[in-house]
Structure formats: structure tokens, C-alpha cells
């Protein structure tokens, strides 16, 4: 098992959003003029990951619910700034039609995709990270997934904040070096610090350094809140007041940040193919959407593993 290749768990929305903004529409269009920049960039990312990480298994997680009701019920501000006036997520008009194309290409190649009603892709990734045989490598540009890092299994995060070509291979030591807290405490850390991109206000006046210092001293958020009730715990009066005022928020925020590890998922075929599952369908898609180069690079990366 120690020498077994990893399973790559792909945060598909994270990668195709990154591809959409990283590849100009003018540089990637189908014959009818439709932009396919997100598709082309996403497929090229997968080819690079397969070529460099050499996995034997892969699953692409999808968002079936980008803003689950159960998270909103706990914290109404959760992703509220990304809510379109007519409902749903604010997504570029030319990105939305590209997602089904991505799914069609992955199906033709034979790479499994999965999502779950009422859960985000993060939750699917979290569940797979604890249920699939290790080693596990999660690929994402979402900081919340640092909490999945677990040296014991092992589970690593391949963080693509600077792109797939410059991904950061993160174990627990890397998380601690980056934030000053172990991966297991990341959700509590994020709740204290806040995250405007997800609508998490954090505790006013508590930034990354203060949040890390509190967790280092008191262990976790429960330890911090317990210490608030101890007059001899050593809190500066101003910080004690800020934390006390945020008690209601701190009671729910970690539950919002924590990735679900128990999403009901079907049995999955995770083995990565060495050749397309449906070559004719892939050829038709490549021709229709002007994806010959990207599909060839992905197919070649798969074949090079054999």
C-alpha cells in the first residue's frame, strides 16, 4: 500500500472556474463561435495532473448544491454575496454552457464524475477522502480543503492557488507553515479569521495571526470559548470582549466551514482508464467543440501510464 499510486480527487468547479478566467475566450472557440475556454483549460489541467502525479484512480467532484440550505440556516450570510437576483449562483453567462461539455468529454473518456443533492463539491471530496483507499490527493484552489489534510492516512492537498503547473503539495507541516495551525484545526481557524469569499464575517478584530495564536494556546475553538468563562485565562480585555460578542456566530460558523465527511454516495468506478471508454463519442465531441488538441493531450497522458 505504501507504494500504491494515489487517487486524485478533483474539485471540478474550482478548476473549471480557474480555467475560464485563465484562458481567453478568443483563444478557444468552437466552429460555431461558442467559447470553450473553460473546457479546454480544464482538460489541459487534468492532462498535466495525470502526467505529473501518475494516479491510478480519479474522481471529479461536482457541485450539485453550491449553497446548501443547511449551511444557510446556520449562517444566512453564507455565500449571500454570490446569489443572483433571480436565484442561483452568479456565474458568467459563457461559462454555464461549458459545464455539460466537460461532463460529456469526461464520460466519453471514462473518468467518473459525482455530486450529491444538498451538498457542495467540497463535501463530496471530503467524503471520498475518508472512504477511498489511500493514498489520496485532493486537487483544489479552495482554502477550506486544507482541513482534509491527514498525514496518517495519508491525504494531501494539491493546492492550485498559483495554477496546476505550480501546485503546492501540502501535508500537515505545510498547513502549519502557512497558517500556524494544524490541518485538523483549520475550520476553527477559518471561523475566527473569517472568509469574505464565502460570506464568513469572522470575529471583528481577529486576523490570521491572532486566530492562530488563540488556537495554539487553547487547542481549538471549544477550548477558546471555555477559557472565556475563566477570569484567570489571560485574555486581554479587548480580545475577551470581541470574542464574547461573537459567541453566537462562533457557535455555528465552524459547522458551516467544516466539510461533510458522510455524504451518501453511490458505488463509484474510480479506476483511471488507459484509453477512452467511447472513442467515437470523444472524436465527435472533439470535432464539434474544437477540442482536438486538449483531448489528444489527455488521452496521451492516460496512455503514458500503461
Describe this structure in words.
This protein has helices spanning 12-22, 37-53, 69-74, 98-109, 121-131, 172-179, 186-193, 208-218, 221-228, 237-245, 247-257, 279-288, 292-303, and strands spanning 7-11, 57-61, 112-114, 136-140, 155-159, 168-170. By secondary structure, the protein is of the alpha/beta class. It folds into 2 domains: 7-182 and 260-303, Rossmann fold (3-Layer(aba) Sandwich); 185-257, 5' to 3' exonuclease, C-terminal subdomain (DNA polymerase, domain 1, Orthogonal Bundle). The chain has a 6-stranded mixed beta sheet with strand order 3-2-1-4-5-6. Strand 5 (155-159) and strand 6 form a beta hairpin. The two termini are 19 Å apart. The mean pLDDT is 95. GO terms for molecular function: 5'-3' exonuclease activity; 5'-flap endonuclease activity; DNA binding. Pfam families: 5_3_exonuc, 5_3_exonuc_N. Keywords: DNA-binding, Exonuclease, Hydrolase, Nuclease. This is 5'-3' exonuclease.
Amino acid at each position: 500500500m505504501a507504494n500504491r499510486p494515489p487517487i486524485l480527487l478533483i474539485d471540478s468547479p474550482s478548476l473549471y472556474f480557474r480555467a475560464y478566467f485563465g484562458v481567453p475566450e478568443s483563444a478557444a472557440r468552437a466552429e460555431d463561435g461558442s467559447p470553450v475556454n473553460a473546457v479546454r483549460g480544464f482538460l489541459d489541467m487534468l492532462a498535466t495532473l495525470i502526467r505529473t502525479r501518475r494516479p491510478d484512480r480519479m474522481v471529479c467532484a461536482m457541485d450539485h448544491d453550491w449553497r446548501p440550505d443547511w449551511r444557510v440556516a446556520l449562517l444566512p450570510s453564507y455565500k449571500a454575496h454570490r446569489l443572483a437576483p433571480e436565484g442561483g449562483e452568479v456565474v458568467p453567462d459563457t461559462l454555464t454552457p461549458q459545464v455539460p461539455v466537460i461532463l460529456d468529454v469526461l464520460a466519453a473518456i471514462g473518468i467518473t464524475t459525482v455530486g450529491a443533492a444538498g451538498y457542495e463539491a467540497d463535501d463530496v471530496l471530503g467524503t471520498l477522502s475518508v472512504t477511498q483507499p489511500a493514498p489520496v490527493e485532493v486537487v483544489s484552489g479552495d482554502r477550506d480543503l486544507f482541513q482534509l489534510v491527514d498525514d496518517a492516512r495519508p491525504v494531501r492537498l494539491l493546492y492550485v492557488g498559483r495554477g496546476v503547473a505550480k501546485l503546492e503539495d501540502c501535508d500537515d507541516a505545510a498547513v502549519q507553515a502557512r497558517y500556524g495551525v494544524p490541518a485538523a484545526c483549520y475550520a476553527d481557524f477559518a471561523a475566527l479569521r473569517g472568509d469574505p469569499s464565502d460570506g464568513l464575517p469572522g470575529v471583528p478584530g481577529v486576523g490570521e495571526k491572532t486566530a492562530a495564536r488563540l488556537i495554539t494556546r487553547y487547542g481549538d475553538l471549544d477550548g477558546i470559548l471555555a477559557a472565556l468563562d475563566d477570569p484567570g485565562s489571560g485574555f486581554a480585555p479587548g480580545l475577551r470582549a470581541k470574542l464574547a460578542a461573537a459567541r453566537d456566530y462562533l457557535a455555528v460558523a465552524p459547522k458551516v466551514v467544516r466539510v461533510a465527511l458522510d455524504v451518501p454516495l453511490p458505488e463509484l468506478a474510480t479506476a483511471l482508464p488507459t484509453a477512452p471508454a467511447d472513442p467515437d463519442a470523444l472524436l465527435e465531441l472533439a470535432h464539434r467543440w474544437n477540442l482536438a488538441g486538449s483531448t489528444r493531450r489527455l488521452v496521451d497522458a492516460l496512455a503514458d501510464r500503461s
